[in-house]
Amino acid sequence: MKCVKVPLKQINDTRLKLMADGQMNMDYRIKTSDGFGYIPVNSEIEGHEIVDIELEPMKKVAHNFSELLEGELSHEEIENLKTSFDTIGNIVILEIPDNLYDKRQMIGEAALKFTGKQAIYMKKSAIKGTIRIRDLEFLAGTDDSVTIHKEHGVRLKLDVREVYFSPRLATERIRISNSVSDGERILDMFCGIGPFPILIAKNHNVDIAAVDINEAAIKYLNENIELNKLKGNVKSYCGDIRDVSESFNCKFDRILMNLPGLAYTFLDVAVNLIEEGGIINYYEFSDSYEQGINRLRHAAAQIGKDVEIINTRKVKSTAPGEWHVAIDGKVISK
Ligand SMILES: C[S@@+](CC[C@H](N)C(=O)[O-])C[C@H]1O[C@@H](n2cnc3c(N)ncnc32)[C@H](O)[C@@H]1O
Q1: Residue ranges per domain, the chain?
Q2: Could you tell me which residues come within 8 angstroms of residue 124 by beta carbon, excluding any fewer than 6 positions away?
Q3: Were both Cys, which of 9, 119, 239, 269 would link to 244 (CB 3.0–4.6 Å)?
Q4: Correct CATH for 166-333 of 3.40.50.300, 2.60.120.10, 3.40.50.150, 3.40.30.10
């Protein structure tokens, strides 16, 4: 690559002048080495020393996803696609409607250029089964489904094909972490790769038992414990929470229950493991809070306890009129 060679002191002025004159080659990165700067140019330039060296090409990131698909899709189709982007570390997962399935490759290439990420996948099924994962189809980039996602200062390693993870719960995670106090003993009944426990233990000196039935999730949780500098202690358990819970010989100040489709079927386990005055962070899919509140109260009543509702919120929309709701309940004596 043809470059202007200048002493480092002059690099900025020379770069600005070359850019203003339209002489800089914007497809390559400027290099600095041994006190000199090398600015890529399109042709010989009088008054400058020109050398030929290897330069790294610029990553091309289009500023506008619409620009890349203009003429191929309608404005509305492009806008809908944009809202479906889920970015997990270096991976983008798209939801492509059935009527655009034939154009998926082109959409994938556009998403790759637009985001500059490593891989683009499309959702091929809903989240399903006990371990809550979905089928994915590779569209563009490099077909490597392992990545490290950064969120609120923690690093979370995962394989998007093997484990559940949603970047859309980031706000909920920090909200829970902010409500934890040092010294709490916490149980995450359905921990996945550990986004809640890792964030909480990064911010607080706590003891967390983290349980998941998916072996791959526990493998990544163990890696994530090592990847992050934690103030607290996280101990992982692989298995069905009903079985694992039998080995616990303590109660917990807080229990997290983020398995929104089925958490209610484990409320009997939770109320038996919660300390007097402890908090259950309970989640479910619902069109209201009443159902969840009633389920919590009913489970507590079975062991002669009551529930004081501390907070309720909509975490995210799941379907028209339906939400992933959160209910924080303090379990107390009647
Ligand atoms: C919706 S995911 C949530 C994971 C994690 N809490 C998060 O927010 O990313 C639910 C998790 O529960 C696990 N799971 C399902 N049934 C379980 C059971 N009976 N015992 C323990 N874990 C279970 C699944 O493998 C899955 O990782």
Answers
A1: 2-52, 65-144, 166-333
A2: 134, 135, 136, 137
A3: 239
A4: 3.40.50.150
Protein residue with least CA distance to atom 9, ligand 1: 165
**Global pTM value:** 0.82
**Cα–ligand 1 centroid distance for 240 (angstroms):** 9
Q: Read off the tokens for 32.
A: 């600095």
The DSSP string of 97-143 is -GGGGGGHHHHHHHHHHHH--SEEEEE-S-SBTTTTB--EEEEEE--
Question: Does the Cβ of 217 fall within 6 Å of ligand 1?
Answer: yes
Cβ of 130 less than 6 Å from ligand 1: yes
CATH of domain 2-52: 3.30.70.2580
CATH number for the domain formed by residue range(s) 65-144: 3.30.300.110
Q: What is the pLDDT of residues 198-244, one digit of tens each?
A: 999 999 999 999 999 999 999 999 999 999 999 999 999 999 999 99
